[in-house]
Amino acid sequence: MAATKTGTKLSLLVLVLFSTLVHAQTRTKPDGDRVTITPRKITLIRTGEIAKNFPHRRKATVTYPVVSGLRDPAVLRRVRAIVDFKNIFETTLAEYRADAWLEEFSYDVNYNQNYILDLTFWQTGSAAYPDTQHKHFTIDLRRGAVVKATDVFAGDKLEQLARLVNEKLQQELIDSKPEILKSGDISANDLNDLHEALKFGIDNLNDFEVANDGLVFLYDAGFPHVIEALQPDGRYRFTFVELKPFLKPDGLLWQFVD
Question: Is the pLDDT of residue 19 over 50?
Fold first, then answer.
């Protein structure tokens, strides 16, 4: 009988400890650290002169995110304003419908947790040439604001960090040169002139994509469409371990540092 009572007490103690542990783990993972994204798909139907003159452009597909799930309504409103459709490429649905250029509009969710929402919007269309355009946002879900370099990196380290990213850019230019020249699309002198103008600076640090293990700094060389295929890929990855010396201890990204 005594053994039974002792076993019961031990079982109750284990249950209490387990419940306490689960409760503690639950508290360490804050609620509302991500949003709910529901895709909304619309088919634009063009009529009138556009449909008559461009019958193959009568339709365009638009898919955009409807954001919900944040507990603070003020923050949710700010996040929704950032990704409001007309703010992405500064074009409304009515304007897309009234023009024959757009073929497809959509987005990719790169990251959505730990109070960070990272989205890339893209659109494809054709005028004289087919073209694809991108617009990227990294959003702080605590404030409902686009994240800037000065929010997460130490101010006195920005120049040093930009130099490190620029080293990767310059190495990409060196590595890609033989293949580009082999194609015969451009002379060595013209390619050198293009490459000399390319540099990753402090201003470019504002555009970075969040991944599970680090950041990808984005760089758009801005080459004219006719030579757009020659521009560098412009994606330079750094782990959070590499970035630790540059991060603000009170910034949004410090949570990823051990």
Answer: no
